[in-house]
């Protein structure tokens, strides 16, 4: 067995030991097609007020500008599908936010993986990313055979659906590479038809400036545009509609990551309890939750909007 094969097998085993559900590896190259698509998307203003999407364009499309002499992009998927769901009439929260903040959970796993690689392989360079840097993680997931880009803009894994976090580790190691898989959305348009705000403007293209997740999480202004009134389908933080209706998510299984155990209040709070929540209580209950991204004021704004 050559060293690339040995190292590849080692990385896959360590990733599985750390709890990652799937691991794919692609050759680090410049993503020319993705560069054109990203430029078009930005030029149409589909990123709304998320101006950080415009930054570091060159690094976004070329991993070799993030890690010197980068040779390989390792993509890891971590399932977050919850075993339990919220009370039916409560303000809805995206499933990814039921437990602890995934950034912290995954960053710790990536750091451990890189440390184990360095212990075994010596002087290697690498950087791990989870939503924290200009990396086109869905493109790399696709290139490394972990799924195809669904019409809802999500990576869909044929055996496991789309309720996954994507993490990326770029390294200067030469490894064995996976190839892309074929698209299996076929003629299905359930996600396009179900999107409450028409944010899925064409297959695989999400107009971020129309997405409920954008309005309830990313938008910093205290007023949500009036033309969205009545379209939020009771979503208070994020939105899962385009994943919930996807036939491939019938294969979703509950995650095995203890940190993603739902915060009890998320499952059990009624609308009234959300409305009566104080800022002090919010900070205490959700101190480790992704919901703190919207801050207390954002959650209050979202509540007012969906109940208005």
From TrEMBL:
State the free-text cofactor note.
Answer: Binds 2 [4Fe-4S] clusters per monomer.
Instruction: Tell me where in this chain the 4Fe-4S ferredoxin-type domain is found.
Output: 173-205
Pathway(s) of this molecule: tRNA modification; tRNA-queuosine biosynthesis
Q: Which SUPFAM superfamilies match?
A: alpha-helical ferredoxin
Entry EC no(s) = 1.17.99.6
EC main class here is oxidoreductase
Q: Name one GO cellular component term.
A: cytoplasm
Query: Which GO molecular function annotations are given, in alphabetical order?
Result: 4 iron, 4 sulfur cluster binding; cobalamin binding; epoxyqueuosine reductase activity; metal ion binding
Q: Does the keyword Transit peptide apply?
A: no
This protein's record includes keyword Ribonucleoprotein: no
Residues that bind [4Fe-4S] cluster 1: 185, 188, 191, 246
Q: What's the name of the protein?
A: Epoxyqueuosine reductase
Which keywords appear in this protein's UniProt record, sorted alphabetically? Answer: 4Fe-4S, Cobalamin, Cobalt, Cytoplasm, Iron, Iron-sulfur, Metal-binding, Oxidoreductase, Queuosine biosynthesis, tRNA processing
């Amino acid at each position: 067995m050559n060293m690339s094969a040995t190292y590849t097998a080692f990385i896959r085993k360590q990733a599985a030991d750390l709890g990652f559900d799937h691991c794919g590896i692609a050759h680090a190259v410049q993503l020319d097609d993705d560069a054109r698509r990203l430029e078009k998307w930005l030029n149409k203003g589909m990123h709304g007020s998320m101006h950080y999407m415009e930054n570091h364009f060159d690094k976004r499309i070329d991993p070799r500008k993030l890690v010197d002499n980068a040779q390989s992009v390792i993509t890891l998927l971590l399932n977050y599908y919850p075993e339990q769901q919220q009370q039916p009439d409560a303000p809805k929260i995206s499933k990814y936010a039921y437990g602890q903040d995934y950034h912290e959970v995954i960053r710790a796993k990536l750091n451990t993986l890189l440390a184990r690689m360095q212990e075994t392989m010596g002087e290697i360079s690498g950087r791990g990313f989870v939503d924290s840097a200009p990396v086109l993680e869905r493109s790399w997931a696709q290139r490394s055979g972990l799924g195809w880009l669904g019409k809802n803009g999500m990576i869909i894994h044929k055996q496991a659906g789309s309720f996954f976090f994507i993490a990326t580790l770029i390294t200067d190691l030469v490894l064995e590479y996976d190839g892309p898989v074929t698209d299996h959305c076929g003629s299905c348009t359930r996600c396009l038809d179900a999107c409450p705000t028409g944010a899925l403007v064409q297959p695989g293209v999400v107009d971020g400036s129309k997405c409920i997740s954008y309005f309830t999480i990313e938008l910093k202004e205290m007023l949500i545009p009036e033309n969205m009134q009545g379209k939020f389908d009771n979503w208070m933080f994020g939105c899962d509609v385009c994943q919930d209706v996807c036939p491939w998510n019938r294969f979703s299984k509950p995650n095995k990551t203890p940190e993603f155990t739902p915060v009890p209040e998320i499952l059990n709070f009624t609308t009234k309890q959300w409305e009566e929540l104080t800022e002090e209580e919010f900070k205490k209950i959700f101190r480790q939750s992704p919901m703190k991204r919207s801050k207390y004021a954002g959650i209050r704004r979202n509540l007012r909007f969906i109940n208005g």
